[in-house]
Write a structure and sequence with these properties.
TPR repeat-containing protein, Serine Threonine Protein Phosphatase 5, Tetratricopeptide repeat, 10 helices, 2 domains, 170 residues, mainly alpha, single chain, 0% strand, TPR-like_helical_dom_sf
């Protein structure tokens, strides 16, 4: 935040060799610093390196999927989120992220809707998951239904992205 990105990264790299849990925490801190500095490729590389040691870390897989999306690496995003879902079938945000990413790309909308409905069954009051459902409904051409769903999401959280989706659907 104060232009001290390299200093923060150097400090993290001087820490002693971590346990698995500490490696995960350190990696998440490092990739967040890199993302905040606009270095999405560096964050992706950091996460990939840690995943070589901790291949079943759902937190690292999820974060790499998010960064992969920013790098237009849908192949990695999809693979990582499917792995998260396999390891943690109750992780609503993994279903939502995958379904929403498909809807954003206007691909496999039936599957996107199924993934988002699964996320909604796990977390029925989450406004971002409700927004995703409204967005996939919009992409499928169910305009009236999508407006109702997006209004419900916006009422729960007037987030700018939800507002943008609602505005487009109207």
């Amino acid at each position: 935040q104060q232009g001290q990105t390299q200093k923060a990264l150097d400090m993290l790299s001087r820490m002693p060799a971590p346990s698995s849990e500490r490696l995960e925490q350190r990696t998440l801190a490092q990739e967040q610093i890199q993302r905040d500095a606009g270095d999405d490729q560096g964050a992706f590389d950091t996460l990939s390196q840690a995943l070589a040691t901790l291949p079943d870390s759902t937190d690292l897989l999820y974060e790499r999927a998010i960064v992969a999306d920013k790098l237009n690496r849908f192949d990695v995003l999809e693979k990582d989120l499917r792995r998260v879902i396999a390891l943690r079938p109750d992780y609503a945000h993994a279903y939502n992220a995958l379904g929403y990413s498909m809807a954003e790309r206007n691909i496999r909308l039936d599957e996107a809707g199924d993934l988002i409905r699964k996320a909604l069954s796990l977390s029925p009051d989450d406004p971002f998951i409700i927004d995703s459902l409204g967005w996939v409904q919009y992409r499928e051409g169910h305009f009236h239904e999508s407006v109702d769903t997006l209004k419900r999401a916006f009422a729960a959280d007037p987030d700018p992205e939800i507002a943008s989706h609602l505005g487009e659907a109207l």
